[in-house]
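Incident log, structure service

09:12 report received: a user says their structure output differs between two submissions of the same chain.
09:20 pulled the input from the user's history:
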Amino acid sequence: MDEKQIEKALVARLRDANSKSLRGFVISGSTSDAKNLGELIGDRRFEIFEDNNAFNPYPKFMIDIFGGLIPDIGLRSSESSQNRIYIEVKLRGRLNYGVVDSQIVRYFLQLLSSTAKIPEGASDIRRATLLAAPSEWFRDKKNWDTWQYFLDKYTDIAQHFDVTLGKLEIDNLLEALSSQQS
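09:34 re-ran on a clean worker, output below:
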């Protein structure tokens, strides 16, 4: 099993999701009151971008920070046409770049700078930058240190601007995928 298989399984489940089943996508360590995707999305419609640069409506914006990066999964609101949730998927690999400028930091900064807390005239999907990884991924000291740095540095600003940071739990998904492959 690899990250691409996990990403595809998450996308398939998101495509089939409704406001009730979205609650099954649990966010642990959430920096907001949202404890699952259902609390971020509700019954609002969204488009899914899977590892595709079409998600970025501002490809020339923040080039040094974000240029060329593509989150594994992006959710764009059908109402406001804004990207609202980025999900980075990890199985064994580390977050790219360094601790200070990791992928997750870059995705958060891009989301924060290119979207509105409350889009004009719209009640919308709440914003989030999430890391989908098995619990064992976080037990690796280097992974944990990078993740913890991100939370230490950006939780306050994320809370101020209502952007949820957290881990999307995927251990059950991995078990299901493993049993399908057996």
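09:41 both user submissions now match this output. Likely a transient worker issue. Closing.
09:42 reviewer note: The CA atoms of residues 14 and 21 lie 9 Å apart. The radius of gyration is 15 Å.
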